[in-house]
């Protein structure tokens, strides 16, 4: 008789994280931990909390950044400049497995909440310092907002058109730092499992995004020439761009080799002679005559509506994609078919959210908890560290907690 196997628990079930965090980099990192089962205690300012709460009101009256990065957490509002507030954090950390902070450079050290200090006091603790540029060097104290780091890391220099560099449309530097902090925590927890010791983890936004610049950076360092900005095109492949269709859509296609070019010429352009024409038969020739190559493709696709263009390209084995706006992404048929949407609770009511992209078949579903109101869990957490109701009332009266 075969017994049904019990689902595996979430991998971070039983792990407690304390985070003194703001904006995107640290909150997005700790949200990944929460989704995988960790208990995440978010420490916020008493005067408005994480300033990302005030970025906009697009998500049912709440800030879209905050809703995205902070589900599944418990919020405690403390004045860390008051010694009593700092003591509360240290009492929470004493029972935690992980501590994460992304305060301004030097602020955590002044509060005694930097990774080195906390790990010295708690050898099993994994403590993460996320900064803009790292703890040393001439840029250590420089302000480091996402767009500034995109500029310093060179991302802006390779993004945009030949005439105009542009920033990425998402906070790429914040996300890069968040994902390295997330993976750094997981690696440190694995090491703790074998050695019994946690230890500091350091991540800087500049170093994270510079790593993501690997292809253009290596191309420049070793080849001598920075890749050109080509909009939706590709610097060294043609055709590789987006082309307008008859119904107002746009379809991006990519021809990766000369065999594909011949199929495109025969089955989509309906100009089979172009497949063997020396002016277009090789990628080098097409890149040299990029304008004419694009003109030929654009003419063919402009006579087709988007669905027909995609169907023909796919039938010919040509990689392609529709250029979707965000409303279309929210209704993407692939995400719908794979049932990737859920609802999460928020102070404004339930809101749609994507399942995290890490799927663990055979285990419990991702823990997509509610987005907390500011200080929603303050009293519960203060009681958990041993404070009486009278002590809590005194802290609230003095503005140390909210």
Write up what this structure looks like.
The chain is an alpha/beta fold and 402 residues long. Helix content is 39%, strand content 13%. It has 17 helices and 11 strands. The chain has helices at residues 25-35, 64-69, 83-94, 107-111, 115-121, 146-152, 172-195, 205-212, 214-223, 258-267, 283-288, 290-302, 306-315, 326-330, 333-337, 378-384, 389-397, and strands spanning 16-20, 39-44, 73-77, 98-101, 126-131, 199-204, 240-244, 250-254, 319-322, 341-344, 351-354. The strands form 3 sheets. It has a 6-stranded parallel sheet, with helices on both faces. A 3-stranded antiparallel sheet has the order 7-8-9, with helices on one face. α1 crosses α7 and α7 crosses α8 (205-212).
Sheet with the most strands, sense and barrel status: 6 strands, parallel
Average residue pLDDT: 96
Strand content: 5-15%
Q: In which range does the helix fraction lie? A: 25-40%
| Oligomer kind | single chain
Which structural class is indicated by helix and strand composition?
Answer: alpha/beta
| Helix/strand order | EHEHEHEHHEHHEHHEEHHHHEHHEEHH
Strand order of the largest sheet: 3-2-1-4-5-6
What does the overall shape look like? elongated
């Amino acid at each position: 008789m075969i017994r049904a196997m019990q689902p595996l628990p979430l991998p971070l079930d039983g792990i407690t994280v304390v985070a003194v965090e703001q904006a995107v980099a640290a909150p997005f990192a700790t949200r990944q931990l929460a989704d995988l089962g960790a208990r995440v205690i978010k420490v916020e300012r008493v005067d408005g909390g994480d300033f990302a709460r005030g970025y906009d009101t697009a998500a049912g009256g709440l800030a879209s950044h905050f809703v995205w990065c902070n589900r599944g957490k418990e919020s405690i509002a403390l004045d860390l400049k008051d010694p009593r507030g700092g003591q509360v954090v240290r009492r929470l950390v004493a029972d935690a497995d992980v501590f994460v902070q992304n305060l301004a450079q030097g602020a955590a050290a002044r509060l005694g909440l930097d990774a080195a200090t906390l790990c010295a006091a708690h050898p099993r603790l994994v403590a993460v310092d996320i900064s803009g540029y790292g703890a040393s060097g001439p840029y250590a104290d420089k302000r480091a907002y996402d767009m500034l780091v995109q500029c310093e890391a060179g991302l802006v220099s390779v993004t945009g058109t030949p005439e105009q560099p542009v920033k990425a449309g998402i906070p790429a530097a914040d996300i890069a730092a968040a994902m390295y902090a997330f993976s750094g925590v997981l690696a440190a927890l694995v090491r703790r499992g074998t050695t019994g010791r946690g230890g500091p983890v350091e991540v800087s936004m500049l170093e994270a995004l510079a790593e993501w610049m690997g292809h253009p950076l290596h191309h420049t360092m070793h080849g001598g020439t920075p890749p050109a900005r080509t909009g939706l095109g590709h610097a060294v492949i043609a055709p590789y761009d987006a082309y307008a269709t008859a119904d107002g859509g746009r379809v991006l296609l990519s021809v990766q080799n000369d065999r594909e070019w011949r199929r495109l010429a025969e089955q989509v352009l309906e100009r089979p002679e172009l497949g063997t024409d020396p002016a277009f038969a090789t990628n080098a020739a097409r890149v040299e005559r990029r304008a004419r190559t694009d003109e030929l493709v654009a003419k063919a696709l402009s006579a087709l509506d988007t669905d027909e263009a995609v169907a023909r390209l796919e039938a010919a084995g040509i990689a392609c994609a529709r250029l979707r706006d965000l409303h279309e992404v929210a209704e993407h048929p692939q995400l719908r078919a794979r049932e990737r949407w859920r609802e999460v609770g928020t102070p404004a009511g339930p809101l749609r959210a994507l399942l995290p992209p890490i799927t663990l078949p055979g285990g419990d579903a991702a823990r997509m908890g509610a987005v907390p109101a500011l200080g929603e869990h303050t009293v519960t957490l203060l009681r958990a560290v041993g404070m009486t109701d009278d002590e809590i009332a005194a802290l609230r009266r003095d503005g140390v907690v909210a």
